[in-house]
Write a structure and sequence with these properties.
By secondary structure, this protein is α+β, with helices and mostly antiparallel strands. It has 2 domains: 1-148 and 293-298, no CATH class; 168-268, Aminopeptidase (3-Layer(aba) Sandwich), CATH 3.40.630.30. Helix content is 39%, strand content 26%. It has 9 helices and 11 strands. An 11-stranded mixed β-sheet has the order 1-2-3-4-11-5-10-9-8-7-6, sandwiched between helices. The longest helix has 37 residues, at 22-58. The chain starts with 21 loop residues before the first helix and ends with a strand.
Length: 298
């Protein structure tokens, strides 16, 4: 997991030509340093938990691999669905040349295994110049931009703004709940169901990737999952079948999943990567965007 960088507050010399009192200058700098520190902590929560979610999946599979390279983490499930053969930045990237090097490292790894793969990039790892040129650099190395996902953090989940529907919510474990979880994910994320089953159809993955399925009148309608890591509860696979959307089912299952994770682990901070469809809901629940996660695919 990446270490947290603590911002230091240096002494401030008086500027006798300034109208701002010295104490105010010091206070302003202290606030600025504090804001940068907490922004760094927040985005590292997102980055760390995201990597941990992929490690939970990769570590559950015989062909899976988890590797740490200089400045790069690899968590590969060794599956057809390339998004789960993943690389991540694990340290700041100061220059364009350094970014190119960190693309080449996992590229060699995955090419040697004949796997399609994806790079999940928290933009805040990139210094300004490298960030501005990042899309072109990835494309130059054969990785096309797939999606941008706002990384969001909530210190606590706010109460619902309106009553939520009653659902029977079952933890994923047996054949029926696994099939339901994969079927809903396949439809909502536009991925062939055999690809989903290849990732999730084994006993071990559900030890750390805790999944839930919500049932309305015995019909599976919605899913959510949680992973612990990076000092936070991570929320994943929030999905509702299209014909059952806009009824509060996704929020109900998600709230249940988060509450169970917080009860078991005593951690209140929660992170997720938002889709456009869910962004307003997550803001109402108390989440705020702290970074952008850009996904590039081979």
């Amino acid at each position: 997991m990446p270490g947290k960088t603590v911002a230091s507050i240096v002494s401030v010399k008086p500027d006798w030509n300034s109208r701002i009192p010295v104490a105010s200058q010091y206070s302003s700098n202290a606030v600025s340093c504090g804001a940068r520190y907490w922004q760094r902590v927040d985005f590292e929560n997102v980055a760390g938990n995201l990597r941990e979610s992929f490690r939970a999946i990769a570590g559950s599979r015989a062909p899976g691999e988890i590797r740490e390279l200089p400045g790069v983490s690899i968590a590969s499930a060794g599956v057809t669905f390339q998004m789960f053969n993943a690389a991540f930045l694990s340290a700041p990237v100061p220059t364009e040349a350094d970014l190119a090097r960190r693309i080449m490292l996992p590229s060699v790894h995955f090419n040697a295994r004949g796997l399609e793969w994806a790079y999940w990039v928290c933009d805040d790892w990139l210094e300004a110049k490298a960030r501005r040129r990042s899309r072109q650099i990835f494309e130059r190395h054969g990785l096309r931009h797939s999606v941008d996902l706002p990384g969001m953090v909530a210190e606590r989940i706010l109460p619902p703004v309106k009553p939520l529907p009653k659902l029977e919510i079952r933890r994923v474990g047996d054949r029926a709940t696994r099939d339901a979880f994969c079927a809903i994910g396949s439809v909502c994320f536009h991925v062939p169901v055999p690809w989903f089953r290849e990732v999730f159809d084994n006993d071990y993955v559900w030890d750390r990737f805790i999944g839930w399925v919500g049932y309305a009148d015995q019909e599976p309608v919605s899913t959510a999952a949680t992973v612990m890591g990076g000092g936070a509860v991570g929320v994943y696979n929030v999905a509702t079948m299209p014909e059952h959307q806009r009824r509060g089912y996704g929020e109900t299952v998600m709230r249940h999943a988060v509450a169970e994770a917080q009860r078991r682990h005593g951690i209140g901070r929660t992170i997720l990567q938002s889709t456009p469809a869910g962004h307003r809901l997550y803001e109402r629940m108390g989440f705020r965007a702290v970074t952008n996660v850009a996904v590039y695919a081979s």
